[in-house]
Each structure stands twice: as structure tokens, then as C-alpha cells.
Design goal:
- This protein is α/β, with parallel strands linked by helices and 217 residues long.
- The chain is 51% helix and 11% strand.
- It is built from eleven helices and seven strands.
- A five-stranded mixed beta sheet has the order 4-3-5-7-6, sandwiched between helices. It has a two-stranded parallel ribbon with strand order 1-2.
- The relative contact order is 0.16.
- The model has no long low-confidence stretch (mean pLDDT 96).
Length: 217
């Protein structure tokens, strides 16, 4: 979907694999299909335009012999339950974040979540994390409209420096509101925000958490 985020996931998977030679790395297949309709726009519009494309990707990976699937796109998890029906286990990206938050000793804390308009408005993170005991806070509507979503669009256009200025404003705002950790709930965001802490608050990104979930499996 986001080609840069997909490539970054693979790069980090390779770097974080504790291998000393080629043969110790895991085999993988990357299904890179950037023509899938915009997930966030579809969620906001109330249509399932991305779903047939996502299902084609799952079938393609299944036919290639994949035993387990991850999707380095948070918004695509809106269709997670439908995709699971195709018979290959899919690691849920929010569950990988939950595992990392527990590893950081941040159970049942207040967590700031950033993501696309669709991810935030449909509560992809809030619903799944709050069921497990966390309190989630998100950017307000103005922050989403003028900072977060424009920053994601800038990242997709390759304008990383410009995006970082916008995102840091929102991160500081969430910390001021009591966030004990910041979750980068869009796989484009780690391409811009590459730091582990802000004001001593952990910044947890969904690319690395998903990589770690793969390695643990």
C-alpha cells in the first residue's frame, strides 16, 4: 500500500533479525500493491473499495506458500476480520503495539495515539487497546485536519522534513494532555519521527512493533 512504509518494514525486519549469515534469515514474500484505493478515505466514505484488493493480496501470499501474514498498514486493519476468513493467520498490528507497551511497563496507562483520519475516527487503536486496559487519547479534530493528516500526505510525497514539524506539535500536545507513551499508529509516521522518546515519554512505532511480533512468532 504505502510503498515506502512497506520497504521500511522489510528493511527493519532484516536489520533486527538476529542472523549471522543469509541462511539464518527468514524467507518472506512482499506483496506491494500501491494501487489499492485509499483506506482512510474509504473508511470515512463508508465503502469497502479496498477490500477486494486486500483479499487478492492475501490470496496471492497464500498461494505463494506463506504461513503467516502481516500488513504494514494500520488503516487496512479496518477489514481485519474479513481478511482472516481467507485462512492464513494475520498478526494484528495493534496487538503488536500492546505487546510492546507491556514490555515497556506501561500497562493501563494513558496512551496518545496518532494515525490517519480513518484509523482515528473508527477507533482501530482505541477499541482494541481500551479493551485491554489502556486509556487512549487522540489528536483533536483541528490537530487531525491541520497537522496529522497533512503530515502523512507530506510523507507519502517524500517531504519528510516538512512533515516532522507538524507531527512534533501534536506529540507535544498529547504529552501535555497526559500521555505516558505516544503510539505512531500509521506506518508512514516512523519514516518522519525516528526518535525513541520525547520529553522522556516513549514513542512506540507500529513498524518496529510489527517486526518484533514477527520475530517472536
Amino acid at each position: 500500500m504505502g510503498p515506502a512504509a512497506s520497504a521500511e518494514f522489510i528493511t527493519r525486519l532484516i536489520k533486527q533479525t538476529p542472523a549471522t549469515c543469509d541462511q539464518e534469515h527468514m524467507p518472506f514474500v512482499l506483496w506491494n500493491e500501491p494501487r489499492i484505493p485509499d483506506r482512510s478515505i474509504s473508511m470515512q466514505s463508508g465503502n469497502d473499495d479496498p477490500l477486494p484488493w486486500l483479499e487478492d493480496g492475501i490470496r496471492g501470499l497464500k498461494n505463494a506458500g506463506c504461513d503467516r501474514i502481516v500488513i504494514p498498514c494500520n488503516s487496512a486493519h479496518f477489514w481485519y476480520d474479513e481478511l482472516c476468513k481467507l485462512g492464513v493467520p494475520i498478526i494484528h498490528i495493534v496487538d503488536s503495539i500492546a505487546t510492546e507497551l507491556r514490555d515497556l511497563g506501561l500497562e493501563k496507562e494513558t496512551i496518545g495515539v496518532m494515525g490517519t483520519q480513518g484509523t482515528i475516527e473508527h477507533g482501530i487503536y482505541q477499541y482494541r487497546l481500551e479493551r485491554q486496559g489502556w486509556n487512549c487519547i487522540v489528536p483533536d479534530r483541528a490537530e487531525m485536519d491541520f497537522f496529522v493528516q497533512p503530515a502523512i500526505d507530506l510523507i507519502k510525497a517524500g517531504k519528510i522534513t516538512e512533515s516532522r514539524v507538524l507531527l512534533m506539535k501534536v506529540i507535544h500536545s498529547l504529552i501535555d494532555r497526559g500521555a505516558k507513551a505516544i503510539v505512531l499508529g500509521c506506518t508512514e509516521l516512523p519514516l518522519s519521527i525516528g526518535i525513541a522518546t520525547v520529553e522522556h515519554v516513549p514513542v512506540v512505532n507500529s513498524i518496529d512493533s510489527l517486526v518484533q511480533a514477527v520475530l517472536k512468532k
